[in-house]
């Protein structure tokens, strides 16, 4: 039988799993009687842990309290939290960089030596700043809550050219590409799936009524929306190279690649700059054709003339 202190720690660890526990199940896990479980639950409550009774059954769950009690993490969970905190310090969410560093420092101080060594190894990984516009934490939380609760989300939105408008959506999921946060949602005004950059979005509170979730768009459609949606120019290229070669060079958050045949690939992407589109595809090192937009065709003709004029004649 476990000593009282060790038993309390194990009980707390069990209650932190996302499920309801009956008194009998907890007693079996701890190797004690149900009455002992009740006494141990009372001890946890006296220590500040909000252990709630489950209505209808003799069971328990760990609830939310007025203060944040200590958490028990296993080895893999502790390392995962450390990785997440280190990534959060890069600034993709505004205002949490310093808090992330403080939390990581506290975590490292209480880790056992074997885990502290593993987490210290992460310092050799250079996490570059995202370079994208930061999202306010309250925006991130409001959109996440609407996605979770399946509630319509109304928001003011600034397009790439600065035009402001109001949108009403059925939010589905958020996507983080490493540089930016996006919302994938059903746009009720346009009757279609759309992607929205969270740094251009200002939620209107309260949210709308609950909705029945629609059929989820496939991953390719979602990736295509993130890769090209929200940009001034949406471009399509035909590249003379196998799809596996192009997919190795272009991340899903940058472009959607689709095989046409064994030697040819279609690439859909987007940018606010025609120069960026031309440079990005040109540096792949494979012959390509521009399918759209027409502005890019004219721009590359002009760019080709300018570059050719810069080369000294033989």
Report helical residue fraction: 25-40%
The parts where pLDDT drops under 50 for at least 5 residues are: none
Radius of gyration, in Å, reads 26 Å
Q: Order of strands across the widest beta sheet?
A: 7-6-5-4-8
Structural class: alpha+beta
Distance between the ends: 91 Å
Spell out the helices and strands N to C.
HEHHEEHHHHEEEEEHEHEEHEH
Strand content: 15-25%
The beta-strand count equals: 12
* Tally of individual helices: 11
| Main sheet makeup | 5 strands, antiparallel
Q: Based on CA inertia axes, which overall geometry fits?
A: elongated
Please describe the structure with a list of short key phrases separated by commas or semicolons.
four-stranded antiparallel beta sheet, 314 residues, alpha+beta, five-stranded antiparallel beta sheet
Can you give a write-up of this model?
The protein is α+β, with helices and mostly antiparallel strands and 314 residues long. The chain contains eleven helices and twelve strands. It has helices at residues 4-15, 23-30, 34-46, 75-88, 97-110, 113-121, 137-149, 219-228, 243-247, 274-282, 294-310; strands at residues 21-22, 51-54, 59-62, 153-158, 164-176, 181-187, 192-197, 201-204, 233-239, 255-261, 264-271, 288-292. Strands 7-6-5-4-8 form a five-stranded antiparallel β-sheet. It has a four-stranded antiparallel β-sheet with strand order 10-11-9-12. It has a three-stranded antiparallel β-sheet with strand order 1-3-2. Strand 2 and strand 3 (59-62) form a beta hairpin. The radius of gyration is 26 Å and the shape is elongated. The model has no long low-confidence stretch (mean pLDDT 81).
